[in-house]
Amino acid sequence: MTFTYRLTWFAFRGFARIWFRSTVIGANHVPLTGSVILAANHNSFADPPLVGSALPREISYLARDTLFNKPFLGWYIKKLNGVPVNRDGGGGPGLKAILDRLNIGNGIVLFPEGTRSPDGTLLPAKSGIGLIVAKSTAPVIPIRLKGTFEAWGRHLTYPKRKPIEIHFGEPLYFEELRAELLTADKPRVKIIYQEIADQIMSHIGQM
Question: I need a labelling partner for 123 at 20 to 30 A (CA). Which of 110, 142, 179, 205 fits?
Fold first, then answer.
């Protein structure tokens, strides 16, 4: 870890344990090295650093591309392994940036729902994560964040002192669907992307 990343990691890890009384379950399922996709449900402002601070390795995060142009903030986001994406969270440049990180052995946090839940329930998965999984060879770790909506959901300006749990599931590989993509026609390709996304959300929902 770089100095800035490690300092932030320690600070938020301590904050999560003291303020949220966070409990981490199954972090041993995440490989300590190599590319990995960390796919979590999305309920709160704190979700990305909660996932990152629960792991003893550096990971990358998505951040709106316009933030990289701001004084100090842009520098800080880069130090935290921020990956620039447009407002919609994807697009060609965003996809390439994500795959570039995975191809050099990084881990990256993605949210299949694409946005924070308005009420704490799981939203349907968007096909974008299926596309990323299909274009990479990285294993996917499903993650269920519990209590984060009550602690700092979109209805709250400041975090409440509520207990949270971070559950890491066993790796998913999607070998059959990845193999099928090699010969699938365009209509089937789109269906496979959504199937991958739906399977990830199904695993998250069962945790």
Answer: 179
